[in-house]
Design a protein that fits this description.
- By secondary structure, the chain is of the alpha/beta class.
- It has helices spanning 2-10, 14-21, 28-40, 44-57, 64-72, 78-91, 96-108, 112-125, 130-142, 146-159, 164-176, 180-193, 198-210, 214-221, 261-267, 271-276, 290-294, 321-324, 343-349, 374-383, 432-440, 451-459, 500-512; strands at 252-256, 280-284, 299-303, 314-317, 359-364, 399-403, 422-423, 444-447, 463-467, 488-492.
- Helix content is 46%, strand content 9%.
- Strands 7-6-5-8-9-10 form a six-stranded parallel beta sheet, sandwiched between helices.
- Strand 8 (444-447), helix 22 (451-459) and strand 9 form a beta-alpha-beta unit.
- It is globular, with a radius of gyration of 26 Å.
- It starts with a helix and ends in a 12-residue tail after the last helix.
- InterPro entries: Glyco_trans_9, TMTC_O-mannosyl-trnsfr, TPR-like_helical_dom_sf.
């Protein structure tokens, strides 16, 4: 019966699980599972009472509320989980773990001010507590308080000098603060403590890449393949690092899907390099990219990840291509533009664009929300701009704004800023091939850090990237240009979360027509 109840809980069938458990003979195991079932049914006080009783009975064990979170959050029972954690904290406020759990959940939900208050209460119980201190440092970083976060982590390290987690968080904070040289020195201390930790090695790799140390960074980035679930095909057939005189004639190379759309669009520049070595290149990618990739020279076959893997001599995930090719003369990949729009689609979409002679400006203000992935959701909140913050664009003379926005952020057009007119052709856009055709008819694309910025850059369209302060590794540190896309220019936040200055500089560039040069290929 316990196994049945646990199965029901994992399926999100909390009421059914409660019915099973209430018929069981009372025991600690039954009580813990019943607490989870109560939580999923929004029976807050019943859940909190049982969780606290079992936590007291097993003081050295993992707090049972942690298991409750693991069961509720995959089924989007976030409100219920928060309510139970608040009740648990009210009942057992001297147990610092209750502050940690609630503070972490609030951080994941983007409610940093509330998380700060909860974690402050926790630190008042134990100022050098390891978990609480690290969570508070993350909270301070989210609020743009980098110096305070650094000082707190240094204080924690005085009491826990061998905490690899704290060294790693300090390195991450320094990298986000764009102090990459300092970050790399701290990464070295974390890795000295846990040299085989793939997550630490992965974060070290990203800092190397952000610092412009490409060859070393891509080599270190291969550690990601040791993370659970990353190695889906036999390692023995992984494409090795190629020597300058490599000859791939007669060999079939399978490039496997990896990362987001932006990652794959960025890495497609390496496909022509493999084809030039004589390889038959097969590409596994989402359907939305198939039309674009089919037009690339050297691609023999396209398929999606729901199809059986075809015969191949070697396989290589998208994000390993820079490492595999780093010894080749053309290790930077094909020149921009390495993607081109379909001429027929360009012609078909032309009537959806505003009339000349105004400057046609494509606009993307939000990324992919992904609330089910806390780290990605937090990053998306930082990179996305509320449409209302772009209201000054309405006052720039001689421009026409064209939405390239997809997803939940497009709903912000229901409450358009005063005076702004936004042409919106996206309702009937089917895939990235349609988006590419629209971009080809524009003069410039203005985008936050999303796949559309990569698409426009790969097509050779002028791009103005509106970038967050703690920018992604791919845009390097302290740069306003990009080695990946010569037609892209970056306007970056001066302070975390502050977009006003970014928008002011954007309006100035558009008003002066101060745009990167276009490399768009003619489609006729």
């Amino acid at each position: 019966m316990l196994a049945d109840a646990l199965g029901l809980l994992r399926q999100g069938q909390f009421a059914q699980a409660r019915a099973v458990l209430e018929g069981c003979t009372p025991s600690p195991d039954v009580e813990i599972l019943l607490a989870h079932a109560h939580a999923g049914c929004n029976r807050v006080q019943e859940a909190a009472r049982l969780l606290c009783r079992q936590a007291v009975a097993n003081p050295g064990a993992r707090h049972p509320a942690r298991d409750m979170l693991d069961l509720l959050l995959p089924h989007e029972r976030v409100d219920e989980a928060e309510a139970v954690l608040r009740a648990v904290r009210q009942r057992a406020g001297q147990d610092i773990r209750t502050h940690d759990m609630l503070g972490e959940l609030l951080l994941q939900r983007g409610r940093t001010a509330e998380a700060h208050a909860v974690l402050t209460d926790g630190l008042s119980l134990s100022p050098a507590q390891l978990t609480t201190g690290n969570l508070m440092a993350v909270c301070l970083m989210e609020q743009g308080e980098y110096a305070a976060g650094r000082d707190l982590l240094l204080y924690i390290l005085e009491h826990h000098p061998r905490s690899a987690m704290t060294h790693a968080n300090l390195a991450h904070l320094l990298a986000a603060w764009n102090r990459t040289d300092e970050s790399l020195r701290v990464h070295a201390r974390a890795l000295a403590l846990r040299p085989d930790d793939a997550n630490l090695r992965l974060n070290h790799a990203l800092t190397l890449l952000k610092n412009g140390q490409m060859a070393q960074g891509w080599a270190e980035y291969e550690w990601r393949r040791r993370l659970p679930g990353r190695e889906r095909l036999p390692a023995a057939r992984m494409l090795p690092v190629l020597e300058p005189d490599a000859d791939l004639r007669g060999k079939t190379i399978l490039i496997t899907r990896e990362g987001g759309l932006g990652d794959m669009l960025m890495m497609l520049r390496f496909v022509p390099v493999l084809a030039a070595l004589g390889a038959r290149v097969y590409v596994q990618a989402p359907d939305t990219l198939h039309g674009l990739i089919r037009r690339m020279d050297g691609v023999r076959r396209m398929f999606h990840d729901r199809q059986p893997v075809p015969f191949h001599d070697w396989h290589c995930p998208f994000l390993s291509l820079p490492h595999v090719l780093h010894r080749m003369a053309n290790h930077a990949g094909a020149a921009v533009p390495y993607l081109r729009a379909d001429a027929g689609r360009v012609q078909a979409w032309a009537p959806f664009l505003p009339a000349r002679p105004t400057l046609r400006v494509g606009l993307v203000w939000g990324g992919a929300s992904r609330p089910d992935v806390p780290a990605a959701h937090a990053m998306d909140r930082r990179r996305s701009i509320p449409l209302r913050s772009l209201a000054p664009l309405a006052g720039v003379p001689g421009i026409s704004l064209v939405s390239l926005q997809m997803g939940t952020y497009a709903m912000q057009m229901m409450d358009m800023p005063a005076g702004m007119r936004l042409h919106d052709p996206m309702e009937t856009v089917r895939d990235m091939d349609d988006t590419a055709a629209l971009i080809t008819g524009l003069d410039v694309v203005v985008s936050v850090d999303t796949s559309v910025a990569h698409l426009a850059g790969a097509l050779g369209c002028p791009v103005i990237l509106l970038d967050r302060f703690d920018n992604c590794w791919r845009w390097l540190s302290g740069r306003t240009d990009s080695p990946w896309y010569p037609t892209l220019r970056i306007i970056r936040q001066i302070r975390t979360g502050q977009w006003d200055d970014v928008v002011r500089r954007l309006c100035s560039m558009l008003a002066k027509r101060d745009l990167p040069p276009s490399r768009l290929q003619p489609t006729s």
